[in-house]
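Table 4 source record.
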Amino acid sequence: MVGTVRLMPHHDPHWRQKVAALDVRHTELLSRDGLLTLDEQRELMELREAMDKALNSRFRTTAEYRDFYLARARQLLEDEGIDMDLPAIAADATVEEVDRVLGLVWAAVEVTNSETF
């Protein structure tokens, strides 16, 4: 029996070029002397959001997305010394379902860090 796979809604095979183009302006803003204006701060935040979307567009399937971010989550938990089992997430899970589990991980790390300081 072959499992079902869910394709990512915004896969882009040219994601590297998009990230590189966004990074040029991002680097330019960060290399300026002095404080950024409010408009530049807003632009910086928009660039970071666009870069995040471009980076996530590299995944063809939600299973690739899941595997990448769960590996990072496991590493973060290990680095923080948190013993937490991650629930199994189906290969055909939606991005939202994967993000919900990841949200639990980030919340656990925040709670742990807030209790230790």
